[in-house]
C-alpha cells in the first residue's frame, strides 16, 4: 500500500476507534483491528468499513443504530465530505477531492517499481515445476512455471528474500526406464523392428535424442540381439544390463539432454530458477549421506520400524491415515523417503516460509509430508502447498487429445511458438490455480479486445502513442502541472479510472497475503477496460490546457500501474502494437 493510502486508511481507523471508545462500545481494543478497505464500486465511496456489524455482536443495538451513533462526529472532519450508511450497516466514506489524487501523484513521481510495504521481510523458498526430467516440459507444468515465477516477483516486491528451486528426480526406476526407452530407439536406427514396451516413454523427442547419440557415439551401444526379442519391459531390462555394462550412462545422458531442454524452455518462458536440486545429492557418500543420516535418526527416535523386510515410518503417530514405507524389501528407497529427506533439507536451510507448487494429483500426498515434518520436530505450518489443476487445450470447439505416457502431449515450447510467451503466461495466471483451465488457443491468438492480455498491453501502448503525439500537436506537459490539474477530473468515467488506479496497492496486498496471482490479472483487465472507455469518451489531448494536463496525468498513472502489474506477471508492456 502506498504511503498516502496507508495514511488515509490509518486515519479512518483512528477516527473510528476514538468514536468507539467515546461511545463505550465493546469488541475492539485497538485501531488496527478495524477493517477499512477500498470498495470495488465507486458508488460505495472511497473507503468502506464493516465495523458496525462486528460491534453489534457485543451490543443490543443493530449495526445501523451503531453506525448512526458513530457518524455524528465523524462528519465534522474536513477531509471527509460525507459518510453514508449502506446495507446492513456498512460505513462508506467519501473523501475530499484532493485526497483522491494522492496515489496518482505518487505514480507520477515513481521511478522504481511499486513496493508492497508494511509486510514482514521473510526468507522464502519456492519449489515449483520440478517435472520429471524424462521428457520435454508440457503445458501442465508450464502453468506451474507461470505461477511460481509470478509469485516470486510478487513476494520480492515486499522485500522478501526469495529463492526459486527446481527439484530434479534423477533417481530410481524412471531413469532406468528413460535409458531403456532411449536405447530401443537407438537400436531401431540400425533397422531393427523393435516395439517399445508400454512402460517405456514414447514420443519423437526420444527419436531425436537417439539420432544425436548415434552421431556422437556411433556404435558404442549396439550389441547382437537374440533372434527372439524380449516381449516385456522387465525382460528387456535384464537383457540390456547383461549386454551393456555401461547401460546406466544412457539414462544419465538422456536426463542431461532433456534437462538442458527444460531449462531452455523455462528461460524463454521467463522462468528462472536459482537452483536445480538433484535428488541424487541426498544419497552422495553412502553412509555419510543426508539420506542415511535421516534414516538413522528416525530409527534412534523410534519413529521407524522393520516389517516384512521393509522399513516403515510411523506416519499414523502424526495424523496420517497409515504408516509409510521408507525402504522396500529390495532395499530401494521409496519416493516418499526421498521427499521426506528433501523437505528436512529445506527446513534445515532456515527459511521462514516454504512454498510447494504441486499438481492437483498430489493432494493425497500432503498429509504424509506433514506427518514426516511433525515427526522430525519441524513446524509444518511453515510449509504452504499450492495445488495446480490440469490444463486442457481447446482449438475451435474441439479439445486437443493429450497423454504424456503415450507421447501425445503438447509441450510448453510448442504452445509458446504458436501463441507467444505473454499470452500463455496470462492465460495460465488468470484463473485460480485450484481450478481446471481450458486454454482457448484461438482466443489467445486474437488481436482485439476479446483477448484480455492484448487488451491490457494495448492500453499501455496507446498511452505511449499518446505521449509521442503530444509534442507533434504542439503541446507541452509536466508532471507538476498535471498534478495540479487533477482536481478538474469530475466525470463518471474519470472518477471510475481514478478509483481503479487507487485500488492497485490494495490488490497487491491481497495477492501477497493470499499468495495468489489471478486477482492481479482481473485487476489489470478491469483497469484496461476502464481506461479504453475513458479514452474513447474523452479528448485527452484537449485544447483546454487544464483538462489536457489532468487527463494526461491520469493516463500516465494508468501506464505506470499497467507496466508494474505486467512485470509481476512476467509479461511485456509494449510501447507500440
Would you give an account of this structure?
With 577 residues, this protein is an alpha/beta fold. The chain contains 22 helices and 15 strands. Among the domains are: 96 residues, Arginyl tRNA synthetase N-terminal domain (Gyrase A, domain 2); 132 residues, Orthogonal Bundle (Isoleucyl-tRNA Synthetase, Domain 1); 84 residues, no CATH class. The strands form 4 sheets. The chain has a 5-stranded parallel sheet, covered by helices on one side. β11, α13 and β12 form a beta-alpha-beta unit.
Task: Please specify the SSE layout and strand pairing.
Elements: H1 3-22, E1 36-37, E2 47-49, H2 51-56, H3 63-74, E3 80-86, E4 90-95, H4 97-100, H5 102-109, E5 123-127, H6 139-156, E6 161-168, H7 173-188, H8 204-217, H9 233-243, H10 248-268, E7 275-278, H11 290-300, E8 304-307, E9 310-313, E10 324-327, H12 335-348, E11 353-359, H13 366-375, E12 383-388, E13 391-395, E14 398-399, H14 412-419, H15 421-429, E15 437-440, H16 441-445, H17 452-472, H18 479-485, H19 492-502, H20 504-514, H21 518-537, H22 545-569
Parallel strand pairs: 5-6, 5-11, 6-7, 11-12, 13-15
Antiparallel strand pairs: 1-2, 2-4, 3-4, 8-9, 9-10, 13-14
CATH A-level architecture of the domain at 103-113 and 449-569 = Orthogonal Bundle
- Helix percentage range: 40-55%
Low-confidence parts: none
CATH superfamily of the domain at 103-113 and 449-569: Isoleucyl-tRNA Synthetase, Domain 1
Strand order of the largest sheet: 7-6-5-11-12
Helix-strand category = alpha/beta
Number of strands: 15
The CATH first-level class of the domain at 103-113 and 449-569 comes to Mainly Alpha
**Distance between the amino and carboxyl termini:** 31 Å
Mass-distribution shape: globular
- CATH fold category name of the domain at 103-113 and 449-569: Isoleucyl-tRNA Synthetase, Domain 1
The pLDDT mean sits at 92
How much β-strand is present in the residues? 5-15%
Q: Major β-sheet, in short?
A: 5 strands, parallel
Per DSSP, the total helix count is 22
From the alpha carbons, calculate the radius of gyration and give it in angstroms: 30 Å
Amino acid at each position: 500500500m502506498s504511503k498516502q493510502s496507508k495514511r488515509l486508511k490509518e486515519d479512518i481507523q483512528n477516527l473510528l476507534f476514538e468514536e468507539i471508545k467515546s461511545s463505550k462500545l465493546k469488541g475492539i481494543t485497538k485501531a488496527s483491528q478495524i477493517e477499512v478497505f477500498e470498495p470495488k464500486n465507486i458508488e460505495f465511496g472511497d473507503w468502506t468499513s464493516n465495523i458496525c456489524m462486528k460491534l453489534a455482536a457485543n451490543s443490543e443495538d443493530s449495526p445501523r443504530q451503531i453506525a448512526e451513533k458513530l457518524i455524528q462526529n465523524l462528519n465534522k472532519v474536513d477531509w471527509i465530505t460525507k459518510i453514508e450508511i449502506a446495507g446492513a450497516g456498512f460505513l462508506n466514506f467519501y473523501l475530499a477531492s484532493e485526497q483522491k489524487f494522492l496515489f496518482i501523484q505518487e505514480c507520477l513521481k515513481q521511478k522504481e517499481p511499486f513496493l508492497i510495504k508494511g509486510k514482514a521481510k521473510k526468507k522464502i523458498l519456492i519449489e515449483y515445476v520440478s517435472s520429471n526430467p524424462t521428457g520435454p516440459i508440457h503445458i501442465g507444468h508450464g502453468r506451474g512455471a507461470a505461477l511460481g515465477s509470478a509469485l516470486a516477483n510478487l513476494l520480492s516486491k515486499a522485500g522478501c528474500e526469495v529463492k526459486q528451486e527446481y527439484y530434479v528426480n534423477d533417481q530410481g526406476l524412471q531413469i532406468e526406464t528413460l535409458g531403456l526407452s532411449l536405447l530401443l530407439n537407438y537400436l531401431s536406427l540400425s533397422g531393427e523392428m523393435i516395439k517399445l514396451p508400454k512402460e517405456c516413454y514414447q514420443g519423437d523427442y526420444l527419436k531425436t535424442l537417439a539420432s544425436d547419440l548415434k552421431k556422437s557415439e556411433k556404435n558404442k551401444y549396439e550389441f547382437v540381439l537374440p533372434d527372439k526379442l524380449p516381449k516385456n519391459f522387465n525382460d528387456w531390462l535384464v537383457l540390456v544390463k547383461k549386454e551393456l555394462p555401461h547401460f546406466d550412462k544412457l539414462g544419465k545422458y538422456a536426463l542431461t539432454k532433456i534437462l538442458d531442454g527444460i531449462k531452455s524452455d523455462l528461460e524463454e518462458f521467463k522462468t528462472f530458477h536459482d537452483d536445480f536440486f538433484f535428488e541424487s545429492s541426498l544419497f552422495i557418500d553412502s553412509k555419510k549421506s543426508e539420506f542415511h543420516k535421516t534414516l538413522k535418526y528416525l530409527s534412534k527416535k523410534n519413529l521407524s520400524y522393520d516389517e516384512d523386510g521393509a522399513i516403515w515410518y510411523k506416519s499414523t503417530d502424526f495424523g496420517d491415515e497409515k504408516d509409510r514405507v521408507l525402504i522396500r524389501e529390495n532395499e530401494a528407497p521409496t519416493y516418499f523417503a526421498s521427499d521426506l529427506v528433501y523437505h528436512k533439507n529445506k527446513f534445515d536451510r532456515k527459511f521462514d516460509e516454504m512454498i510447494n507448487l504441486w499438481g492437483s494429483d498430489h493432494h493425497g500426498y500432503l498429509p504424509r509430508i506433514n506427518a514426516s515434518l511433525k515427526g522430525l520436530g519441524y513446524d509444518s505450518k511453515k510449509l504452504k502447498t499450492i495445488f495446480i489443476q490440469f490444463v486442457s487445450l481447446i482449438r475451435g470447439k474441439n479439445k486437443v487429445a493429450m497423454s504424456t505416457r503415450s507421447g501425445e502431449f503438447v509441450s510448453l515450447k510448442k504452445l509458446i511458438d504458436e501463441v507467444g510467451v505473454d499470452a500463455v503466461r496470462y492465460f495460465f495466471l488468470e484463473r485460480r490455480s485450484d481450478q481446471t483451465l481450458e486454454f482457448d488457443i484461438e482466443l489467445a491468438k486474437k488481436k482485439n479486445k476479446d483477448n484480455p492480455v492484448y487488451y491490457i498491453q494495448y492500453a499501455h501502448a496507446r498511452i505511449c502513442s499518446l505521449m509521442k503525439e503530444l509534442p507533434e500537436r504542439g503541446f507541452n506537459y509536466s508532471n507538476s502541472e498535471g498534478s495540479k490539474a487533477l482536481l478538474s477530473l469530475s466525470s463518471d468515467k474519470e472518477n471510475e479510472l481514478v478509483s481503479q488506479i487507487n485500488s492497485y496497492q490494495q490488490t497487491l496486498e491481497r495477492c501477497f497475503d493470499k499468495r495468489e496471482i489471478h486477482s492481479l490479472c482481473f485487476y489489470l483487465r478491469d483497469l484496461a477496460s476502464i481506461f479504453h472507455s475513458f479514452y474513447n469518451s474523452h479528448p485527452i489531448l484537449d485544447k483546454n490546457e487544464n483538462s489536457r494536463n489532468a487527463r494526461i496525468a491520469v493516463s500516465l498513472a494508468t501506464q505506470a500501474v499497467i507496466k508494474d502489474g505486467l512485470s509481476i506477471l512476467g509479461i511485456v508492456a509494449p510501447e507500440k502494437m
